[in-house]
Amino acid sequence: MTTDITASHVLVVDDQPINVQMLARKLQFAGIRVSTAFDGPEALAKVKEDAPDLILLDVMMPGMDGIEVCTRLKSDERTVNIPVIFITAKDAKESKLQGLELGAVDYITKPIDLDETLARVKTQLDMARMHKKMLEFQEYEAYRLRQASVMRLTQGLAHNVNNHLGVAVGYLDLLKSQLQDAALSLTTAEKLYVALDNIGVLVKQLRVLEDYSKPQLALISIPEVIKEVIAKVKAKFPNHNLNFVDDSIHLSIETDQEKLALALEAGVTNACESYDEAGQVNILVLKTKDRVHIIVEDTGRGLGINAEQAFDPLVTTKGIVGAGFGLPLARHALGAIGGSVRLEANNPVGTAYTISLPVKA
Question: Are residues 91 and 220 in the same domain?
C-alpha cells in the first residue's frame, strides 16, 4: 500500500535547465518538495545543507559527473542511505550497470517520460519510508532489550548491596557485644570493613551502568591492561599462579580501558574462585583479521551451571554473599564497546572465559 508522499523532499540534479524545470514542476504538482542543482559540487552542497529523501541524478554532466557524485554519497555514512535514481541516455548501458553497482536504486532514460518518472519516484519514496520505519523499529527493539538488561543488572546490584548491608549490620551487632574482648572486637571490625568495602565496590559498578552509552575510546596496550589486572587480582589471591602466556607481544587497539579491565578482572577473579586453594590461571591473546580475543583458562571445579546462567545477575552457585555479579557486569560493559564475552567448559577440566573485541581497520 502506498503512503502519503507530500512530506517528501526530492533533489533534481541535471546540467540541462529545461530537464530540471520539467521534472521539478511534475514533482511539485504531485505535492513533493523539490530542490535543484545543476552540477555535481552544487548537488553535494545541497545534500549537506538539507538532506533529501531521494535524488534524481543525471549521469552525463561536465566536470563532476553523476557517477562520481553517487560514489561520494555512498561513501559517506550520513548520505549512504539516500536512494538515487539515475537519469541516463537511452543507449548508455554501461552507465546504467555502473550506477546500479554503486548502489543506485533505479534509472530513467532520456527523453524523459514524466508520468513514468513520477511513478518510479513514488515507488522509491514508499520503499525508503518503509526502510526507515524498519530501522526505527530495530533501534527501538535494541533500546528495549538494553533497558531490560540494565533493569535486571540494577536488580542484581540492589540484591548484592542489601546482602552486604545485612552482613555489615550483623557484624556491628557482634561488635557491640564484644567490646570487652579487644582481640575478638578487632577481628569482627576487620570483617565489617570488608563488608563495607564490598558495598563501595558495588556502588562504583553503578558507574558502568550509567556510562554504558558513553565509552571513552583510546589507543591502549592489551598486554599492559592484562598485567595490571593480574597484579590487582594477585593481591586478592596470593597463592594462585596467574600466568600471562607470551607476555612479550605488542598489541594495541582502540577501546575503553576501564570497561575492558573490568571485564578481564571479572574473568580472572572467577577463574581463581574456581579453586578451593592454590590454582593455575593462564591468560593468552589471539588476534584474527578483525577481532582480538583474550582467553582466561583455569582447571578448577568447572561451570556447575549452564554457561548463560553465569551471566544472570540474580544467579550464583558460590554460596558467598554478593558473589556472582562480576560476569553479568562484564558482558554489559563489553557491549558498550562492541565486544562480547562467553564462558565454556575447558578441555579436559575447568573453564575458558573469552573476551572478544573489535579491531578497526
Answer: no
Q: CATH no. for residue 19?
A: 3.40.50.2300
Domain span including residue 61:
9-112
Identify the sign of the CA torsion 336, 340, 342, 347.
Answer: negative
CA atoms within 13 A on the CB side of 333: 26
Q: Kindly state the greatest CA–CA separation across the chain.
A: 104
CA dist 95 and 277 (Å) reads 72
Question: 30-66, pLDDT tens digit by residue?
Answer: 999 999 999 999 999 999 999 999 999 998 899 999 9
Is cis: bond before 111, omega within 30 of 0?
A: yes
Handedness of CA 193, 196, 201, 204 (dihedral sign): negative
pLDDT in tens, 141-189: 666 666 666 666 666 666 666 666 667 767 676 766 766 777 777 777 7
Residue bearing cell 593480574? 230
Overall domain count for the chain: 2
Residues 108 and 252 in one domain: no
* Distance separating alpha carbons of residues 54 and 128, to the nearest angstrom: 8
What's the CATH code of the domain at 281?
3.30.565.10
- Which whole number is the average pLDDT over 287-302? 90
